[in-house]
């Protein structure tokens, strides 16, 4: 199914949040959508891994990494876990790495930038809470839609 963010905005702009255009497309799927699951972490991706090994059931993982550009929170190994466990996409308010590999993988990946440095693995963070960045509130269970034009969030499914 194809869902265009511009068409969604034309039909339901009053109920959508449009994510500030800060994110670059790194994944093999530039268009993806699904219910949101969240993690809040700071330069530590152990919780991200823990979530991606759980059943994704077509969801999109939104990672609030505080906008840190100091290390990567997702690379090809974590993306592969997401693929294996049926996650549709990952949006990271932070960095990724393994850009060449990610571009060939069948998953949507958006992030601020790339950084080759790996993150800590201490397991600090919080899962499935509302997070806010890029002028948008991301609430678990809300719907995220991403394509070449941008990212929008709706409290309910709108396709």
Largest sheet: 10 strands, mixed
* Strand element count: 12
Give the name of the CATH architecture: 3-Layer(bba) Sandwich
Query: What is the name of the CATH superfamily?
Result: Ribonuclease E inhibitor RraA/RraA-like
How does the overall form come out from the CA principal axes?
Answer: globular
Uncertain residue segments: none
Strand content: 25-35%
State the CATH topology.
Glucose Oxidase, domain 1
Text of the CATH class? Alpha Beta
Give your account of this protein's structure.
The protein is an alpha/beta fold. The protein has one domain: Glucose Oxidase, domain 1, CATH 3.50.30. It is 18% helix and 35% strand. It contains four helices and twelve strands. The strands form two sheets. Strands 1, 2, 3, 4, 5, 6, 7, 8, 11 and 12 form a ten-stranded mixed beta sheet that branches. Strands 9-10 form a two-stranded antiparallel sheet. It starts with a helix and ends in a 5-residue tail after the last strand.
């Amino acid at each position: 199914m194809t869902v265009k963010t511009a068409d969604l905005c034309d039909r339901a702009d009053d109920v959508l949040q449009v994510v500030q255009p800060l994110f670059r497309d790194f994944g093999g799927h530039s268009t993806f959508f699904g219910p949101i699951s969240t993690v809040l972490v700071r330069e530590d991706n152990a919780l991200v891994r823990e979530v991606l090994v759980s059943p994704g059931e077509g969801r999109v993982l939104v990672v609030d990494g505080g906008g840190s550009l100091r290390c990567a929170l997702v690379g090809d190994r974590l993306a592969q876990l997401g693929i294996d466990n049926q996650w549709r996409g990952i949006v990271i308010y932070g960095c990724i790495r393994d850009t060449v590999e990610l571009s060939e993988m069948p998953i949507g990946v958006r992030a601020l930038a790339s950084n080759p440095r790996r993150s800590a693995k201490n397991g600090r963070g919080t899962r499935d809470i509302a997070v806010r960045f890029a002028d948008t509130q991301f609430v678990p269970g809300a719907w995220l839609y991403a394509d070449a034009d941008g990212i929008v969030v709706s409290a309910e499914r709108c396709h």
